[in-house]
Amino acid sequence: MLSTYQETGSVLHGIRAGWKLLFLVVLGSALFWFERLDLIVVSLACVMMLYRLARFSLATLWDQVRPALLLLVIIFLAQIFLTSPEYAVLIVARFAALILAAALVTLTTPTSEMVAAIEACLKPVRRWVPIEKVSLALSLAIRFIPVIVSITHEVREAQRVRGLDRSLFAVAMPVIIRTLKMGDQIAEALDARSFENSGDGK
Amino acid sequence: MIELENVSVRFEGRRVLQDLNLALTEKRIGVIGLNGSGKSTFARLLNGLQLPTEGAVTVGGMDTAKSGKDVRRQVGFVFQNPENQIVYPIVREDLAFGLKNLGLAKADIPVQVERALERFRLQHLIDRRTHELSGGEKQMIALIGVAVMNPRLIVMDEPTTLLDLRNKRRLMQAVSDMEQSVVMITHDLDLLSAFDRVLCFHEGRLFDDGAPEAVIARYQQVCEEC
């Protein structure tokens, strides 16, 4: 969801966001419903083949799994001790397939289409759910996660310069304070751009 | 026209602006003053982001305290830090945001967005991710995000603070090309030479008001004496 969209002009890029999200929901449910290693390994292989279909390189595929690698290794080792090596493989393959499939959807779908698809899904419940606010909240989350990451880097660097190497608390406090201040300013910016005037988005 | 009548603003008992009586009719108005002099509070009064504790601010006859929403349609606001003003991950989406809030028809929005970017010769940024833009590009997108809503007046709170010389010139060129009236708060006194009027604030009061050259000269003298 973090604006990782990469245009390659593939068939998958042309499919509507709603179908891709539905595929993700169905695949996710199926992966957790079936406890068969062969089916899960085949699913993983299929998802990897979809990367080829989307014209992404192996390096791109690897980039999607790499951030979760440590977690996958921990889960694998824990499952070996707690259950069996076969079940450990099943669990890791299941998570890998899910991570790769979710990443593939974000790689092939612009955030605006994704948000529009979510808005469309929420339409039947618009009487109870403020769709425009949900959609804005999603967009804000996507927009500001990189900004918060960059604030965290700034704070860590500033502390390193002053001789503080590692302290979760010392990093967390200024990051939280700056994020809250930023939140106030964003709220004002939304006000200034007439967000409160928002109608039905016709 | 914007009018301020006997306006004062207090924060936690402290007066940050006192007894302002002003009528703003000029096309280009600069606002200067030392840090903490009340410039930003004054700017925020103009579009109702800040309401006066005493007195009244009216924009085209509308009281900011009673018609805040309508006032904000007339008066756009560009903040000092564009990072907090750009709310969507893609430039196209961010520029569309304000238009959507104005209730424009869906089909017209992309056309307006493209036109606005063309006017500022920045159409190449349309599909860029906003967090990957340079500081100058972000400030320009923040300005276009407000200009695209076509307010009658744009208030800019130190818009050049984070910009290098090239981007500062680019922004000022964009400002001078704009049809709208502009009220700009700045510490860059050079930028105000072509403005019609400059207001100088000091310790919450309007210290000076007049043609740029005279006001800036008196301000510099005061700064030297401080």
Automatic annotation (TrEMBL), chain A:
- Transmembrane residue ranges: 17-34, 40-58, 65-82, 88-107
As given in the record, the signal peptide range reads none
Presence of keyword Repeat: no
Q: Which UniProt keywords apply?
A: Membrane, Transmembrane, Transmembrane helix
This protein's membrane topology, according to the annotation, is: Multi-pass membrane protein
Main subcellular location of this protein, as a coarse class: membrane
- Cellular location(s): Membrane
Family, according to the entry, reads as follows: Belongs to the CbiQ family.
The cross-references to PANTHER family, in alphabetical order and at most eight, read: PROTEIN ABCI12, CHLOROPLASTIC
Full protein name: Cobalt ABC transporter permease
TrEMBL record, chain B:
The organism's superkingdom is given as: Bacteria
Q: Gene3D superfamilies from the entry?
A: P-loop containing nucleotide triphosphate hydrolases
GO MF terms, alphabetically ordered: ATP binding
In its keyword annotation, does this UniProt entry include DNA damage?
Answer: no
A Pfam family found in this protein is: ABC_tran
Domain ABC transporter as annotated: residue spans: 2-225
Q: What CDD domains has UniProt attached to this entry?
A: ABC_cobalt_CbiO_domain1
Which keywords does UniProt give here? ATP-binding, Nucleotide-binding, Transport
Q: Which family does it belong to?
A: Belongs to the ABC transporter superfamily.
Q: What is this protein called?
A: ABC transporter ATP-binding protein
* Taxonomic lineage from the root: Bacteria, Pseudomonadati, Pseudomonadota, Alphaproteobacteria, Sneathiellales
